[in-house]
Design a protein that fits this description.
Layout lengths: L2 H25 L3 H31 L15
Helix pairs in contact: 1-2
Organism: Pullulanibacillus camelliae
InterPro entries: DUF1657
Protein name: DUF1657 domain-containing protein
Length: about 80
């Protein structure tokens, strides 16, 4: 697995976690807990943005690892 693929997988996982945190903040009635979930969601958004920036850097530095839609699903 390339670094680019690992970053994409990590970003997807973090987006899922972020969505769960947002959902938890809406589902809880305790204001303090809501605040904690919202804060964690915002912090995860910052991490996601940072990783997406890094992903773009990696793809620019190593263009051979950028998968194009036409090459997906084809075996070498």
């Amino acid at each position: 697995m390339t670094v680019s693929q690992q970053l994409k997988q990590t970003i997807a996982t973090l987006k899922s976690v972020q969505a769960s945190l947002e959902l938890f903040s809406y589902e809880t009635k305790d204001k303090n807990t809501q605040s904690l979930f919202k804060q964690a969601s915002q912090e995860s958004d910052e991490v996601i943005a940072s990783l997406e920036t890094r992903l773009l850097q990696v793809q620019k530095e190593e263009p051979q690892f950028v998968s194009s839609p036409s090459s997906q699903g084809q075996s070498s």
